[in-house]
## 1
Amino acid sequence: MQAVILAAGRGKRMRNLTDKNNKNMLHVGGYPILKHKLDLLPEEIDEVIFVIGYQGNKIRREFGNSYKGRKITYVEQKRLNGTGGAIHRAKKLLKGKFLVMYGDDLYDKGDVQKIIKYDLAILAKKVKDVSKFGILKTDKKGNLKEIKEKPKRSKSKLAAIGLFMLNKNFFKFKLVSVGNGEYGLPQTLASMAKEFDIKILEARRWYPIGTPEDLENAQMAIKRFV
């Protein structure tokens, strides 16, 4: 099974920390964030595809062509056209169902093991401030019904947190624009959900790393994820 890790963005919210470094290569607990992500992958994953862009050469130098027996492949996203666009950069390399994860969040190993049992699934977490996230609405069976992008209020508190299980049916659907020349992965899945059941799974643990403050706090949080 393959895993696609999206690691092309610069991470402007990290300010000067990413002037000369890829945000996903910033260190938490003495190691790059991406190393932690590779270490939590289930044994079923035998190939990792990194979608790289800004300072991608540093990722190549760090991990090379393999990591702990897993093949590593790289594709470049020269035009940063969103998470949906990033997945399409890897399209020709993908064989069956595949795991997708954002490069700068920490996930629970058990949650990753759980999601790969499905053909189509999204990991979600309840949040207090829905206005900062894409909020998922589900049907009675717990499948995706729709996504509301950063609503002011919502009965559902489940946010998409950047971990997905997909299959190649994803590429049958037109990418959904989210503005500024970008196309969203979650938003495209909402379109796909009209024809396919996409299971919503609630995460045990999740830690986003988007700001310098998040990075500082993650130095302690990492102990819960390794």
## 2
Amino acid sequence: MAEALILDSEAVNALANATERGVLAERARAILTVAYERGALVRVPAPVLAEVCRGPRYDPPIDHLLASRGIVVCDLTQTVAKRAGHLLGRAKLSSAHAVDAFVVATALLFDASVIATGNPSDMRRLASPFKQIRIFAI
């Protein structure tokens, strides 16, 4: 399977609302550019949309980002959901970190993954045993 860039909520928001996100948007764009140059797949786990979508008035930038950049939303499967729960248990984190766990569980679907995140400490905690996952802070 291919290498993938997995975007968390902060990365999606930074890319979709670049004028409001300043340096975060610049960092996210740089990570995205390198991913495309390397031929990586770019994915957003479905639970991330629950954090960033807030209704018809706010969603158009998110929808445009996904459509214009060829970013695919990964459906939440039973396998990914259970893996996310196991990650939370191993890391001794509460369900308040569930979306972060879904991001890491999605990254594990690929041979190698980079997670672009605004929350590198929690992502590193969840992904620490997995050498095929790299965490990039935006």
